[in-house]
């Protein structure tokens, strides 16, 4: 199989590096175009990341020799597109939100599909915000997105906030079995890598917890409603519930976002054993299609009293699974549990790659 050539925007940043590393041996995609800020443009990729490569795994063979383009120069990407070196781009841009929004639209208008990690378009009504196991059907709004904007081949698809992915798939699995979730109380313990690099200063994090992450609680309370929403005409309409109350904290962990979740069900309430069985047996479209980055078991149930833990569980099943544990009754609501996912893999670059695989499988790439 001939690999599809892809580009990475923001390729020198923390999430961009994760894209580069994860795509090194991908069976479908091959990085052939990299773009970043003007200060990195014009340098070979190896030189642009020298002294600032943050991952234990290296970038793929040949990527180090790629010349970094200016991500603001859409024409450069378009030239690569026309040469056959860039069929679509992963966006890991680190700019002001309005700048990202305009730039991603410029790429799509030029005919280059954008699979984005950025938050700029998460609330754009005709842009699907995908978790591949939950709402793959939202991708079907792409033809309407193109028609409404006058785009030919380009489109924009985004992934949601990294922290909600530690509990959204378990919640969806229960909803799929007919259990209404009316209210959720969520406390997240979020790794420092979620702030990028250099991120939060070490003197702020060592021996400390920071009980504030700008905009994070609003994202945690609102994004699930779009993911659980429905496509109506040319827009995605939010689901009416569940009602979510979130507390988001930065903790001194390198990778892995943890969430302590309490759920209130509707009239029909599952037993603890039913919940465990539903989660252990859950499979969805990515597993049916055997997409390369899809975890074989999307939800891993741990029975130990002290799991999940970031160091022990964040890399489970290609770092793409959600690990749950401490499943027990809640004295305020009905059920409580702890969820964990790898924030820069499942919650960022790996999730973006899985979305691209889904789009390819559905004929959009």
Summarize the structure in words:
The longest helix has 17 residues, at 345-361. The mean pLDDT is 96. The chain has 2 domains: 4-161 and 348-361, 3-Layer(aba) Sandwich (Rossmann fold); 163-341, Dihydrodipicolinate Reductase, domain 2, CATH 3.30.360.10. The protein is built from 13 helices and 14 strands. By secondary structure, the chain is of the alpha/beta class. Helices cover 30% and strands 21% of the residues. Helix 4 links the parallel strand 4 (88-91) and strand 5 (114-116). The strands form 3 sheets. The chain has a 6-stranded parallel beta sheet, sandwiched between helices. It has a 6-stranded mixed beta sheet with strand order 10-7-11-14-13-12. It has a two-stranded antiparallel sheet with strand order 8-9.
The CATH homologous superfamily of the largest domain corresponds to Dihydrodipicolinate Reductase, domain 2
CATH architecture of the largest domain: 2-Layer Sandwich
Please state the CA-atom Rg, rounded to the nearest Å.
20 Å
- Structural classification: alpha/beta
Unreliable parts: none
CATH fold-level topology of the largest domain: Dihydrodipicolinate Reductase, domain 2
The best one-word shape is globular
* CATH class value of the largest domain: Alpha Beta
Number of helices: 13
- Integer count of domains: 2
Beta-strand content estimate: 15-25%
The average pLDDT is 96
Distance between the termini: 15 Å
Largest sheet: 6 strands, parallel
- Helix percent reads 25-40%
Tally of DSSP β-strands:
14
State the order of secondary-structure elements, H for helix, E for strand. Answer: EHEHEHEHEHEHEHHEEEEHHEHHEEH
Task: State the strand order across the main sheet.
Answer: 3-2-1-4-5-6
